């Protein structure tokens, strides 16, 4: 397998750094780009600042699923809104993002799997989702060529897929067309305050006066917040993905089978991952936030592979604060580019080929890994941070941010502008980490 990181579609960055704007968005992943688009669409002067390139990290490295099925019920209203926005992107983004409502299926190996999805259907009955359980005999219609001793499948025909390397750059370019500035290779080192509220940011290229800052920095959000004296419980997992050659006759519907997951790509190949394997580097934050993450750890225990190595030393040595005229950690690592797990991907290929023989001996064109940022309850933060007026946080999507990202960005715009939010933002409030709320995931990651 050739290790080669995904290359997102290019975005021509704005050369001039604005001296003033209404809002600076820190981080140009799908959540940050969507926030910038929504703010610009509402007429706010917006600057989207990215330390590397647009979608350089997890937003171009994920599976490309756009799903409502088996979402945490707290996320479901926002996901339904996000799907509506995805549909509209076909007209507004002026590029084919690969968005297709081709369905997603979870294969059920045991009766316990079936019961788990039945429980979820009961929890979300009020939303009238079209997810349903199908029998083993029906699997052949949903997933032609599927083999194996499966109890059935959990299937949502209107769930979708899209192309990670195309979507976020297209969203950023759409924000530019509406007047937002997109500045790349320009880290935001920190914020400036006046009278107890944000009055600007300091970037490596200079100062921008602003009224609000939205932190959408993905796996870097915790460190950025910590430098401001804000404790954001965030940990990371590493997920590996491969890309096959293009071929005809493969399944259109994306699927998960515990040991594998796949999604058909716009180029005719498939993105393939190990559905039950995530690597976790033990670092000082693992122990700092251990108590809050205990429930999540129990929930995902079987899918986690812990390792102790260089990452522990790197984080221990990482500065927690810095002067704004100094080089920041965000400039020292422009793009997080972890090595993929060959063992995880080999296992996924074997399991996928057993279930879908059409994948046997297909050429692997590319392999990569991405860093997923997670919260203790596996629900993102989309919220004002009240300890610093003018500071907002949109992060912690816990491995399912690609699909919900556009809706999250528009919700964040509502909050920044003080408008009536399109969905109830209470489940995403930052204060839940300190107000005694139980921090428990309501469902597994898939």
Describe the structure in your own words.
- The chain has 446 residues and is of the alpha/beta class.
- The protein has a single domain, classed as FAD/NAD(P)-binding domain (3-Layer(bba) Sandwich).
- It contains 12 helices and 21 strands.
- The chain has helices at residues 30-41, 76-92, 111-123, 136-142, 164-177, 221-227, 284-288, 294-300, 310-317, 329-332, 342-355, 401-417, and strands at 23-26, 46-49, 65-66, 104-108, 132-135, 152-156, 160-161, 181-183, 188-194, 197-203, 206-209, 212-215, 235-244, 254-256, 261-264, 270-273, 278-281, 304-307, 364-374, 381-384, 391-395.
- The longest helix is centred in the first third of the chain and has 17 residues, at 76-92.
- The protein starts with 22 loop residues before the first strand and ends in a 29-residue tail after the last helix.
């Amino acid at each position: 397998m050739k290790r080669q990181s995904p290359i997102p579609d290019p975005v021509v960055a704005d050369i001039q750094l604005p001296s003033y704007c209404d809002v600076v968005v820190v981080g140009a992943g799908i959540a940050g780009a969507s926030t910038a688009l929504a703010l610009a669409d509402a007429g706010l002067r917006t600057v989207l600042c990215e330390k590397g390139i647009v979608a350089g990290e997890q937003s171009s490295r994920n599976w490309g699923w756009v799903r409502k099925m088996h979402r945490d019920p707290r996320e479901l209203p926002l996901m339904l809104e996000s799907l509506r926005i995805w549909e509209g992107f076909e007209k507004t983004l002026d590029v084919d993002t690969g968005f297709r409502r081709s369905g997603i299926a979870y294969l059920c190996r045991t009766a316990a799997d079936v019961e788990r999805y039945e429980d979820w259907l009961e929890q979300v009955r009020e939303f009238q989702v079209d997810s349903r359980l199908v029998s083993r005999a029906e699997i052949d219609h949903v997933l032609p060529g599927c083999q194996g001793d499966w109890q059935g499948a959990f299937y949502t025909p209107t769930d979708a897929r899209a192309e990670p390397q195309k979507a976020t750059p297209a969203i950023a370019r759409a924000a530019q067309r509406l007047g937002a500035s997109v500045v790349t290779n320009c880290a935001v080192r920190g914020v400036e305050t006046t009278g107890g509220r944000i009055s600007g940011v300091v970037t490596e290229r200079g100062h921008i006066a602003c009224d609000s800052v939205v932190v959408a920095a993905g796996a870097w959000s915790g460190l950025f917040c910590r430098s401001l004296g804000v404790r954001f419980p965030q940990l990371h997992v590493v997920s590996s993905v491969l890309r096959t050659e293009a071929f005809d006759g493969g399944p259109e519907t994306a699927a998960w089978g515990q040991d594998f997951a796949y999604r058909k790509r716009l180029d005719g190949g498939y993105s393939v991952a190990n559905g039950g394997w995530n690597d976790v580097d033990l670092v000082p934050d693992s122990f700092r936030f251990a108590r809050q993450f205990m429930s999540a750890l129990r929930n995902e225990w079987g899918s986690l592979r812990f390792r102790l190595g260089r990452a522990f030393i790197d984080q221990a040595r990482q500065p927690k604060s810095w002067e704004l005229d100094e080089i920041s950690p965000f400039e020292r690592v422009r793009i997080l580019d972890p090595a993929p797990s060959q063992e995880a991907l080999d296992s996924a290929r074997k399991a996928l080929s057993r279930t879908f023989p059409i994948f046997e001996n297909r050429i692997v064109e590319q392999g990569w890994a991405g860093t997923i940022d997670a919260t203790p309850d596996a629900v993102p933060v989309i919220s004002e941070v009240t300890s610093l007026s003018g500071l907002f946080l949109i992060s912690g999507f816990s491995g399912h941010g690609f699909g919900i990202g556009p809706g999250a960005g528009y919700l964040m715009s509502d909050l920044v502008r003080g408008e009536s939010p399109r969905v109830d933002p209470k489940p995403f409030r930052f204060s839940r980490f300190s107000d005694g709320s139980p921090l428990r995931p309501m469902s597994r990651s898939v």
